[in-house]
Batch of 4 targets.
Target 1
Amino acid sequence: MASELSALSSRLDELLRAHTALRDENVRLKAAQEQLAGERAQLLAKNEQARSRVEAMISRLKAMEQAG
């Protein structure tokens, strides 16, 4: 009986350590995910700005071509 309790206690300790490790990893992964989402939003905004600039340049070139 005592050996069974000891084995259960050991197993419980292992599970608690695993739980703590997984919880810590989850926190790190969530933080990384938030950071990546922020970076993605910034990149999408920069991409939209670049697209707008290119479209404006194309419009100006077409206007110059028609006026020229």
Target 2
Amino acid sequence: MTVEIPKLSREEFEAYPLSLSLSGIFYEADVLYTYEEYREHFDLTMNTANNNMFFFSSAGLQTFRNIQISICEGEWVMVSKNKAPAIHFVIHHPKMVEAIERFTPPII
């Protein structure tokens, strides 16, 4: 599993504050990060030893701010909306799965 996490400057964070993604538990309220909490969480995550099951990488920008894309290569893709109400789309169609796997986010 590869987890890609945006590495945001204070200015980027203040322009688009992050909240803890709780869509998987259908929690109705946002749990907002402070910049300091975000940086601590980011640093702790990146300092976690990569192993055969998990690999953590940082992204220079955050293309999507309200969705999370989970991919099981060649099997399925799940697109989740992070804000309440939580919505999850699971895609099994082979051509759509392949298209999303090959998707390259636009550079802003």
Target 3
Amino acid sequence: MSSMEVLVATAEREVYSGTATMLVAPGAAGELGILPKHSPLLAALKAGELRITNGDEVDEVFVSGGFMEVQPDKITILADTAERAADMDEAEIVAAQRRAEDLVSSNKGDVDLAMAEAELSMLTARLNLLRKRRK
């Protein structure tokens, strides 16, 4: 079976680099499935899970948004933030989610409500990924 190169990077670091036989990404307009030799594509990503499949092995990476460039033999993902699912700490995410929920519900004048809601949405997506992995 043919494969393609996959690079997932943020402005600070390279999060994933390897080969894949399939990649599923959270596109802004819906989930995108990419196979080797795919037509060139540029797509916006929303917060969610990247599933990078290579044979029987599946790597999961959480991205908080960004862009994906697809070429027939290479996929480059430039994410706002990215983290391998295996490196995520559920307790830390739950605590951050509670803080974000408190900020949203307090609705004080000094709180940027849109930023707090965006943070809450991203944390919820991260937590959903971890809980899905456990099942």
Target 4
Amino acid sequence: MYAWLTMVAEACSFTKKRKAVEAFWKFNDALSAIQSEFDIVDERLHVDFGTKWGPELYKQVGDMITPQLMTERARKRRLEELQTVQPDEIDKLAKNFPAFCGFHTNILEYNNY
């Protein structure tokens, strides 16, 4: 759960959040833009914590793992849950961060503020 949260959910949130910040500024909503910018910084810390502490948590159950492998495992589990990616594509997609996050996230219509 921790690996999924930090290496998938939070890691893939940056693109959408940056687009939201731009939209908030465009519509002169400074409070929402600033709050979102703080949220981006907070999520960055969470990803860094996950990179550092995720492998330490795995050690507690006897699994020596690198942050990269932990991230790929979490992404593979997410792709398998979605059931929209062919099994032979999962390994390749799990290693490609931009492509993976494109599958994981939804498109928002920021102009419909």
